Amino acid sequence: MTLSTYHDTLETIGNTPLVEVTRLDTGPCRLFLKLENQNPGGSIKDRIGKSMIEAAERDGKLQPGGTIIEATAGNTGLGLALVAAQKGYKLVLVVPDKMAQEKIFHLRALGVEVILTRSDVGKGHPEYYQDMALKIAEERGAFFVNQFENPANPYAHESTTGPEIWEQMGHDMDAMVCGVGSGGTITGLARFFGKTGANVEMVLADPEGSILANYVETGEISEDVGSWVVEGIGEDFLPSICDLTPVRKAYSIPDKEALLTARDLLAKEGILGGSSTGTLLAAALRYCREQTEPKRVVTLVCDSGNKYLSKMYNDYWMLDQGFLERPVAGDLRDLIS
Ligand code: PMP
C-alpha cells in the first residue's frame, strides 16, 4: 500500500483549515478563519520562512551550509529556524531584549544563535535590531533575509495563502481582513485577489497606536505613534514591501477589545489564537456587524495563543493591565464568564 504521509515537516507548511465562526455575533455575514496557527512552527510566518529561504537558494544568495541572519524574535524567526534547521543552514537572529523568554528558549533549542539587543532604541541607532542585523550580515558575509524588503515575503501569500483561501471559499467571497506587521500578508493577498477579478474588499485591522489605519484613511504617515500590547502587527513606518493602495477600509482596535475577543474565540469556538488574532477578529466582527447585506468574510488566526498563556490568557495579567475588572469578592472564577 502507498503511504499517505508527508516527506518532511516543510511539506506540512500551508494548506491550513478554514473554519466558520458560528458562536459569535457576525451580523448578517458569514465569517471564516484561516487557521495559520496549525502550521508546524505555529504561525503564518512558516510560509515566508520557506519562501524567502528557497528564493535565496534560487538567486544564489545562499550556498549549502551558509549563514542566514534576520532581525526578529517573532514568528518569522521561528519560521526561518524551522526551515534553516531542516535544510542545514546556520541561523542568527538579532532580538530586542523585551521578547518573552519562552520564544528565546524555543529558538535556541532549534539551534539558532540569538543575539540580544536593546529594545528601547529606534531606527538609526547602532543597537537598533534591524541596523545591528545588517551590520552583522556584512561582517559575516551572511544572507540578510529582511522580511520588510524581501519580495518573497508577499509572494508566499500571493502564491499559497491566497489560492488556498480562494479554493476553500469556492471562489465566492466578499472581504478579507488582515493585519500588517511586515505587510507581506495583506500585499500578497491583495495581489492574488486582484488577479481573480472577484472584487474582494481588503480590510486592515490595526492596533490602536499604530500609524497604518490612519494612513489608509488619510494617505498620511503620522509622527504620532502610540504603543500597544498586541504582538506581531502595527507599525511606526510603512515597510517597503507593504502596498496598501488596494486597502480602502481600516479599523483601529484597542488592546482591550483585541484581547477580550481572542479570549472569547477560545471560550466559544475552541480556537487558541494569539494576540494579533484578537485584533483581526475584532475588526472582522465590527465589519460584519456593520454590513446591511450578507457577505462572506475571511480573516486569519495568525499564530497560536500558547505563547501568550501567561499574558492574555492569564486573568491576573489581564487584571494588572486593566483589561479585566476585579470583582468585589476577588474570586477568579467570577471572571471566567
Ligand atoms: N500576526 C502575527 C502574530 C505576526 O507575527 C505577524 C507578522 N509579524 C503578523 C500577524 C502580520 O503579518 P505580515 O508580516 O505578513 O504583515
Task: Give a description of the structure.
Helix content is 36%, strand content 15%. By secondary structure, it is of the alpha/beta class. Helix 1 crosses helix 5 and helix 5 packs across helix 6. The model has no long low-confidence stretch (mean pLDDT 94). 4'-deoxy-4'-aminopyridoxal-5'-phosphate binds next to helix 6.
What labels describe this entry?
10 helices, Pyridoxal-phosphate dependent enzyme, binds 4'-deoxy-4'-aminopyridoxal-5'-phosphate, 6-stranded mixed β-sheet, pyridoxal phosphate, 337 residues, 10 strands
Question: Largest sheet, if any?
Answer: 6 strands, mixed
Give the strand content: 15-25%
Strand order of the largest sheet: 1-2-10-7-8-9
Number of helices: 10
Give the overall pLDDT as a whole number: 94
Strand pairing plus helix content: what structural class? alpha/beta
What ligands are attached or bound here?
4'-deoxy-4'-aminopyridoxal-5'-phosphate
In total, the number of strands is 10
Radius of gyration: 20 Å
Question: TL;DR of this structure?
Answer:
It is built from 10 helices and 10 strands. With 337 residues, the protein is of the alpha/beta class.
